[in-house]
Each structure stands twice: as C-alpha cells, then as structure tokens.
C-alpha cells in the first residue's frame, strides 16, 4: 500500500491517532526529568497520562503512530500490510511541530510515539531517533517522552533513542512463542526480548555511571514496559500471569499491560467474532492480579494453578484467594504485620501502612479502620479488633461468599460500559476513590 503524500498534517493526525488507540502501554510514572531553564516543558515525578499526579491531576500526552505503514502481516493488527486502509506517515519535523504546538496550547505534557515498520526496523528506528533528537535539541522540549523500541532494529539506534526518551517499551504482543508463530509469523520471541534485555542492561549501566557522575546523561529514567494481547489466543490466565511474573523478575519491567483482543480483522486463526465484544472483565482481573504481584507480595502460583487456571468472574483475585485460604483468617489488625494485612480483602497498601503507624499510639477500633480507608464491607469477614469480629459471621467459604455477593462487586463503569476507543485529549476522566491505574479497584 502506497503512503499517501497529499494528506494534510491534520488528516495525518486523525489517521495516526486513531491507529494508535489499540496500544495501551502508555501509563507511565516514576521519572523526574526537570526543566533546566533553557527549554520548554518539564516532567515531574508524579506521573504521565492515563495516570494521576499526587494532587489528582490527569496528565495527558500526545499518543500517535509515526506511520501506519507496515511490512508485517500480524493477523490481529489493523495496520497489517494486507489490510486495505489509507496509509500515511509523519516526518520528524511534523512530529516536532505537533508536539510543540499541542504543548503550547496546554493540551499535552508529553509524547507517546509508536510506529508500524516502514521499509525495515532500522529505517523506522532512524526516523524515530531523528524526530526525538530534533525535539530535544532544536525544539528544547524537556517534557515526558515514551517511545516504542522496534524489535530487530540495530542496538546502537535503540541505545541512542534511550538517552532521549523517558520510557521505552517493546510489545511482547502475545503470551507465548507458539501463539506468536501462528498470529505474527514475521516476529519471534528472540527479536522481541533482545531489545528488552538491551534496555535493561543499559539502565543498569546508567545507574552505575550516575553513581559516579551525577550529571551523566540518563538512559530510560522511567524504565520500560510491555504489552500483551489477551483473548486472541487460548492461553489461560495462569499462563499469562506466569509470563508476567517472569518478565518482572528477568527484565526489571515497570509495567506489563494487558490489552483485550479487539476483533478488527477476519482470519481463520482468530477467535470468532463475539456479540459481547472485547474480554474487558478478563483484562480487568489480570490488571488486579498484576497489582497483587507488584504491590501486595503475591506470587502467580498463589493466585492460580493448573487445576484452576482462570480467575473467578465474581470476585477479584485477592478476595478469591482469601476465600480459598480461610485457614489464615481472621487476622487481628492490632497485631498482624504489614504483609499479613496486605492479604486481607478490603485493606489496601495505603490503609495497611496507616494501620501499622496508628496502632503504635493505641488500640484500633472498627470505626478507626473505616476512617483509614479500610473497606469494611469486605474486611469484616477476615479481621478482628481486640479479638472480636464486628458481628457474628458463619466462618465458611460458602457463607462468606454469599455475603460478599450480596454486598455487590464493585467494577469501574469504564469496564462495564465502555466502547473500545482511545481517550480524547479533551476527556476529563475521573475515577472514584479506591481506583488505581486503569480504574483498578484493589483493596
């Protein structure tokens, strides 16, 4: 498909922002790139787009593809080479113009740049590097940049881009090498993991360099992430969580993102089209489990097993684990250590910290726990205060499960009702209390 050279920049923007909507790996935080007074933009430590800062602000970024032209024919991808869609591409100058003009109008505070593969991985990575280099050096942009590393690109190109970006990510695409072979035969697990390892090693070397030279250039200071498509292939939740856990352990990732499979192509190797749409509840459960791995000291094998390989649709993973392990409960909140409190449904990591600090000053009551943010309608079945439960409970899995179901499982309305679309730069997204990244309810 020939790139359309007669399109205006606005027309290109419409096409390439729409083409980027299926890439969800752009929740980012943890960087501290600051304005040194010589350029425009800054990036505070609180977070970038699809995340929330300490004062509750939603920070936005411009999320686009460099090009939707692609030499690959991944069966699940809307931009695969055999699809009859309008193809276009930005130039490095256009990327800079868009980013700076959107920033000046206060629409964005950063850039998320992904791309199809134009001609070759090296050629595409060179164009991305040229755009970022000009943006940083000539335009003086010091805001947040998240860029996708192209599998198969030269390692030196990836290294150079790493010194210009705050976060890099390489999409794992699918959970297993077997699925990749079927749905994305032009990609291999080795090609995907090689740049991931390169970024990891580069970050470690940079940390050592910064320990000696405080003003040394920073390499991917906000870390790296990846994304998996969920529901396009038959892997169980257990397999997906095992892969996720392995990625965190072996590649020091900041985040693993899960993207519910969206049926945009017709192919015999893809699941049949469903009236129910993308498996958003499954995606939601995987995010909740991912939260448990990263913040609650759980392991994948504790949450699922080969005998029970998929998450319960009625209860979140933490609550389901507690129901299956009643031998550890009830927990006395005035004595239990921090890690034990984390395993109690209704107690999040913030409220667990508050409990540990507050009980140094006196004995806690149920009213105190409520003020600390503990969700008592869940926690009451699993805790005691001064040896007493809040009210008599028949301590069996069936009885507690029935009571929990009666109280209602809280799901974000975005999961229940959302259509699959990219957030507009003008959307004002507000989640209620108790929601984390991607609206995950996890306490």
Automatic annotation (TrEMBL):
Keyword presence, Cell cycle: no
A molecular-function term among this protein's GO annotations: metal ion binding
Keywords: Iron, Iron-sulfur, Metal-binding, S-adenosyl-L-methionine
Top-level lineage group: Bacteria
CDD domains the UniProt entry points to: Radical_SAM
Protein name (database record): DNA modification/repair radical SAM protein
Origin species: Dorea phocaeensis
